[in-house]
Amino acid sequence: WTRQLAQPPQERQRVTLGVEAVGGTWRRATVTVAIVSADRVHVGIAGELESSMSGESSVAPQELVALVDKLAKEWDAKEVAFSRDAAAGPHLEDWAGAAGVRALPLTGRQVRSASQLFRSELVGGRLTHADDPLLTVQMRAARPSDPIGTGDWYFSIPESTGEIDALRACAWAAWAAISPGRSMP
Q: What average pLDDT does the segment 117-141 reach?
């Protein structure tokens, strides 16, 4: 992760962001970054918001949009991926249009594809991630919507044993960066 951070922007072939908030409560939200370079694809947490840090009961949509805006500029990201069904979706789409960033609201089928791609790329060693304690905890808590063997599953919020916002945001960013058949912006 440190090496990816130090990499000059001109050596990055593609940078995408992924966004996910804790379903239902908006207690926390995570923004991740996927970096495609000549020799690897790397994903990690770029920023996060937690309502307890501000003394509020939930993260405000404008707080999340402000963080995404800051990180898109910082990373020179041209795309931001998020679940179309997410409550933040309309806010992110409005922001993206004004900011000149391509919004990628994932459909249900794409959420499944992103979850499956993320898992297969990690297992295959083609995708690396930061050694982040939050990701470690969330990977342990994550559960599929259906048995993985069915080939038709996604990282399920209700089935999981804890919050998985960072994990899902990593999957969305990785999908936006490396999904077969996606064209460059």
A: 91
Which residues fall within 8 angstroms of residue 23, CB to CB, at 6 or more apart?
157, 165
Q: Taking residues 151-172, report their average pLDDT.
A: 94
| pLDDT tens sequence across 60-85 | 889 999 999 999 999 999 999 999 99
Q: Tell me the C-alpha distance between 116 and 175, whole Å.
A: 9
Three-state DSSP state, 16:
strand
Q: Which residues of 101-121 are buried (b: 16+ CB within 10 A; e: fewer)?
A: bebbbbeeebbbbbbbbbbeb
